[in-house]
Write a structure and sequence with these properties.
It contains 21 helices and four strands. By secondary structure, it is mainly alpha-helical.
């Protein structure tokens, strides 16, 4: 149990006066540790709500992917008759809509917090998912996947929420864990939808009716969870944004100014490109893997989906490892350690894409895919270990821009697979990833060493080595509490009782 110190004779206005985790009062009562088996409010409750919501959103987002071999088949076989290009057009649309929403979600999180936005997006994405059975054409499938894909923008809420709850020194691990466990939904949906639910539905109905109705299951779960998290969690360690602004413990934030500040930083766009070359690769594999194993190795749909799910299952630990190692090398070498780790992962990832594309045996392809997936997701965790340092007061906007990079990468790589054969498309993707690793040399964050030059400031060294006072004012400045506003809040709470 941790408490925060305030001036003698006064009590800081906040929702919780004590916490189950150790916190840093100089970083807005953010937690300095992570206790995975703890579900207490506000820190760990937000942590678990964050990854579970993103997991469900990811499940909904790619629920159709393992069913595509059936959907694209001829009407006589239970499908609607789609060409390879039409399938890839739908795949591209599934990530296209998310790009715009991720740009919006960043500044919206800075202004309103992640909790409500996460719930609304999850419920909104559940509706088109439940309407999957109404699809009768390629255009209909593309439009449907576009709107379902808007739920993928919950990733920004996911990363912002944990950045708001945990200090920068452990944010790499926290962000990587919630992001990785959320991304795990991409692997679970391959297994559950393609190998369990779809065959189960087929036992009592036709193939066509099975794929038209099975997506109702994740839709119902997603809508229910989206509604629940708005009532059982908090926006920040000190409470919800609405009350914090009212009682004066949080300033009003301009979403436009937040976005402008984040977007004007060159480091944001370098990380945008790099995230496109790791998360963009994962999204592409989520869309392509089942069809790839079905076509290249002539496996039945259920078997291809089960093997494809392995790529997503690596999120159980791989992304967390990426963020954890990033935090550890930061503790020893500062920002330069994070950048070395980031660059190395991207270069290895690029090489493994070339290896996977040229692996001719099924067993070999599975082994290479496991290693390849692990490195891809570790790079994602590493990227978001750097994001909280770029410009802390506008972390939401930066997380949104960088997150959008993942979807832009998926669109670009998806276009490659749409227009080229598998081998050439993999070569294009691998080459882009290798080049992105080199870009790490250009990342230069104020007060921190870059990959090849500069050195950390004394404040940064004191922070990561924990040898002195924390760096001053790296989070939002908090104004003096408004006593009258606080009394109004207390009066409203009494009336509610």
């Amino acid at each position: 149990m941790s408490t925060t110190e305030v001036a003698a004779g006064s009590a800081e206005i906040k929702k919780y006066q004590t916490y189950a985790l150790n916190v840093d009062p100089n970083q807005d009562d953010k937690a300095t540790e992570i206790k995975l088996c703890n579900f207490s409010r506000p820190h760990m409750r937000a942590f678990h709500c964050s990854w579970m919501s993103f997991f469900t959103a990811f499940f909904i987002w790619f629920a159709i992917a393992p069913l595509l071999p059936v959907i694209k088949s001829s009407p006589e076989e239970g499908g609607i008759g789609l060409s390879r290009q039409e399938v890839w057009t739908a795949n591209i649309c599934s990530v296209l809509g998310t790009i715009f929403m991720r740009f919006i979600n960043g500044p919206m999180c800075d202004k309103y917090g992640a909790r409500i936005l996460m719930g609304v997006l999850l419920m909104g994405a559940s509706i088109p998912c439940a309407l999957t059975g109404l699809v009768n054409s390629a255009a209909g499938l593309a439009v449907l996947r576009f709107f379902i894909g808007l739920g993928g923008s919950t990733f920004v809420c996911c990363q912002f929420w944990t950045s708001r709850m945990f200090t920068k020194e452990v944010a790499g691990t926290a962000n990587a864990l919630v992001g990785g466990w959320g991304n795990l939904g991409g692997g679970v949906t391959q297994l559950v939808m393609g190998t369990a639910l779809f065959p189960l539905f087929k036992t009592g109905m036709s193939v066509e009716m099975a794929w038209r109705t099975v997506c109702i299951v994740p839709a119902v779960v997603g809508f229910g969870l989206g509604l629940l998290i708005m009532f059982i969690s908090d926006d920040a360690p000190k409470g919800n944004y609405k009350e914090m602004k009212k009682n004066g413990t949080m300033p009003e934030i301009s979403a436009a100014a937040s976005f402008r500040s984040g977007a004007m930083n060159i480091n944001t766009w370098l990380l945008f490109i790099q995230y496109g070359c790791c998360f963009g690769v994962e999204l592409t594999m989520n869309n392509a893997a089942a069809s790839y194993f079905n076509t290249v190795f002539e496996l039945p749909v259920a078997s291809a989906a089960a093997i494809a799910s392995i790529f997503g299952w690596m999120n159980l630990f791989a992304r967390g490892i990426g963020g954890f190692v990033s935090d550890k090398v930061n503790a020893r070498m500062g920002m330069r350690g994070r950048l070395i780790w980031q660059s190395g992962l991207l270069v290895i990832e690029g090489i493994l894409i070339f290896v996977f594309a040229n692996t001719k045996s099924l067993a070999g392809a599975i082994v290479v895919m496991i290693v390849f997936s692990t490195v891809v997701q570790a790079a994602e965790g590493s990227t978001y270990g750097i994001v909280p340092y770029v410009n802390p007061p506008v972390t939401g906007s930066i997380a949104g821009v960088v997150g959008a990079g993942g979807n832009v990468g998926a669109v670009c790589f998806g276009l490659g697979f749409r227009q080229m054969d598998n081998l050439r498309a993999f070569y294009l993707m691998g080459g882009c990833v290798l080049c992105s690793g080199i870009l790490t040399a250009l990342i230069s964050i104020k007060g921190h060493a870059s990959l090849l030059w500069g050195k950390d400031s004394e404040e940064a060294i004191a922070a990561y080595k924990k040898t002195g006072a924390p760096a001053a004012a790296t989070t939002l400045q908090v104004p003096e509490p408004d006593a009258e506003a606080a009394e109004e809040v207390e009066a409203e709470e009494e009336e509610a009782k």
